Amino acid sequence: MMEKRISGTTGLYCLIGSPVGHSGSPAMYNYSFKKLEIDSAYVAFDISEEKVPDAINAFKTLNIRGANVTMPCKSAVVKYMDELSPAARIVGAVNTIVNNGGKLTGHITDGVGFVRNLQEHGVGVKGKKITILGAGGAATAIEVQCALDGAKEINIFNIKDAFYEKAKETIENIKKEVPKCVVNLCDLEDTQKLTEKISESDILVNATRVGMHPNQEQSPIKDTSNFRKGLAVADVVYNPKKTKFLEDAEAAGCTIVGGIGMLLWQGAEAFKLYTGLEMPTEEVNELYFK
């Protein structure tokens, strides 16, 4: 029996990056298109960084309506965009491209996904003090979105490496766009400062890979004496679903927020940018994220 869903009018969306063979995005978006009866399909293309200019030309030639961008292409696509969302401009990376008749707009939905995931657990960022561990891609998207959404203070802790230096630039950009938000960069090795900032914080975020499978016995925080009721603790790691970091926090009475929801909600935000509609997140969550 022929696939009825694909026709001569079917719109095409895609994922670009490398590797993409393991990605859950095609299943998530195709299920949503089918469920909402949208005449579109979603496929993954393995694209290396040096092939980005070719891919961008292909979007325009084939009228690919939109694309998600994963590593290593998130920064490489930026200079080919006609327009950038405020968050994408500050972060200097794009994970969602919308093609409107050949005009490409670049967005970054990771931070939106993170903030929405917090909201789903009853935690808001407006007026809050937040401590973030890490200064890589996920951390950058999170701190920028939290600043845009009205966080009062953000403390970034990272070891003194290339990411630490890049975080300095990001902070300068945040100061220009959101001068009311206080952003501090601190050395992760300064445990006294870290303990002090956690004690003052409303939200603590692990945006490093510490605790990810197969190293699930590790946690980025050794001294959990400041874990307490009233502190929300979030992890971007989603394998395992409950990291040691979150287990320790839960044992201390903190509100815990796992990383899998960030993945779901950043996808839902991209879907909304593509279609103007809400992704059927409950069903998608049941099918692909449980």
TrEMBL record:
Give the reactions, separated by semicolons, that this protein catalyses: L-quinate + NAD(+) = 3-dehydroquinate + NADH + H(+); shikimate + NADP(+) = 3-dehydroshikimate + NADPH + H(+); shikimate + NAD(+) = 3-dehydroshikimate + NADH + H(+)
Q: Name one Pfam family in it.
A: SDH_C
Active-site positions on this chain: K74 (proton acceptor)
Looking at the record, the residues that make up the Shikimate dehydrogenase substrate binding N-terminal domain are 15-97
* Gene Ontology terms describing biological process: amino acid biosynthetic process; aromatic amino acid family biosynthetic process; chorismate biosynthetic process; shikimate metabolic process
Leader sequence range is none
Q: In which pathway does it act?
A: Aromatic compound metabolism; 3,4-dihydroxybenzoate biosynthesis; 3-dehydroquinate from D-quinate (NAD(+) route); Metabolic intermediate biosynthesis; chorismate biosynthesis; chorismate from D-erythrose 4-phosphate and phosphoenolpyruvate: step 4/7
List positions binding NADP(+). Answer: G134, A135, G136, G137, A138, V236, G259
| InterPro entries from the UniProt entry | Aminoacid_DH-like_N_sf, NAD(P)-bd_dom_sf, SDH_C, Shikimate_DH, Shikimate_DH-bd_N, Shikimate_DH_fam
**EC number in record:** 1.1.1.25
Keywords, alphabetical: Amino-acid biosynthesis, Aromatic amino acid biosynthesis, NADP, Oxidoreductase
Entry-linked SUPFAM superfamilies: Aminoacid dehydrogenase-like, N-terminal domain, NAD(P)-binding Rossmann-fold domains
The SDH C-terminal domain extends over 259-285
Q: Which PANTHER family match?
A: BIFUNCTIONAL 3-DEHYDROQUINATE DEHYDRATASE_SHIKIMATE DEHYDROGENASE, CHLOROPLASTIC, SHIKIMATE DEHYDROGENASE
Q: Which family is annotated? A: Belongs to the shikimate dehydrogenase family.
Q: What does this protein do?
A: Involved in the biosynthesis of the chorismate, which leads to the biosynthesis of aromatic amino acids. Catalyzes the reversible NADPH linked reduction of 3-dehydroshikimate (DHSA) to yield shikimate (SA).
Quaternary structure (record)? Homodimer.
Q: Which HAMAP family match?
A: Shikimate_DH_AroE (MF_00222)
The protein's name in its UniProt record: Shikimate dehydrogenase (NADP(+))
